[in-house]
């Protein structure tokens, strides 16, 4: 086991709302603060997940049918409200765009089950859009380029149409109701060529200004790890600390000054809190006070979670898997929790290999349930 960096981060599942039209048509994976369908970003410098994280039959299908893919996510999918798995969801990058494939328990390509309300999301071509939608787009955004269009149906009846276009080099999300009547529109974050990336940064490679802040204002905090984020061409640094067993995330710009979190989603560690300036605050600000007599109280840890700061506390089966599949990894943090529908605990693990960050989830017996290359 490589050296452990003391840290803490509560990890949560990220849900992607994408569905296939047919078993042979994969889906674009989209995730932004304004829409679960739109906002895919090109990832720069991404190191793929090891092919060994794929079931054998799934790997065989991808190798034979998906040219030049980069594997970024593998997840066993549960039947809603049960502990039964219906198959595996795989996300790959193709030409810089995330694409989802779904496989049954035998590794055969399949469609994604309907959502909890029975909703089916289907990707549409320009020709498949209702005339009212096409007419509105042509009249309002003359010369636009269609990026992606999807319909959401329940029991065979269209509930809404969601379209993303490129107009005057700006991405725009346009929403229509089930009859094709315009509902709302808003600019999507950035443009198609904009990258968002995240990489692991060792403490030694942080700027002197950041080190000075850590050594002065946060000298009583335990250091976790640091990440470099590039969002819409702007570089920032997230430094993860913990205080009294609770996570704190600091955000810095390239000059070493503390800033508000950049990009969608705020603090990058699910379950973490951004350092605050006063009691009760949850907003990142410059010059926050550390928790203590003059700072905000630290909330208690979730009752169903056990934070793991030492890699030696992981089950041997998980350790063996990491050593075999993520050579040279650095353990960052983990937590053990029991899902609502389960009876045994699951381990969620953050680790780095070089500058690439990964999130993994294992069963209590060491079976890999999810692996994701952070982008």
Automatic annotation (TrEMBL):
Keywords: Signal
Annotated stretches, region: Disordered: 261-300
Residue stretches of biased makeup (Low complexity): 270-295
SUPFAM superfamilies the record matches: BT0923-like (SSF160574)
Signal peptide range in chain numbering: 1-25
Ranges for domain Putative beta-lactamase-inhibitor-like PepSY-like: 123-183, 308-370
Cited InterPro entries: PepSY-like
Protein name, UniProt field: PepSY-like domain-containing protein
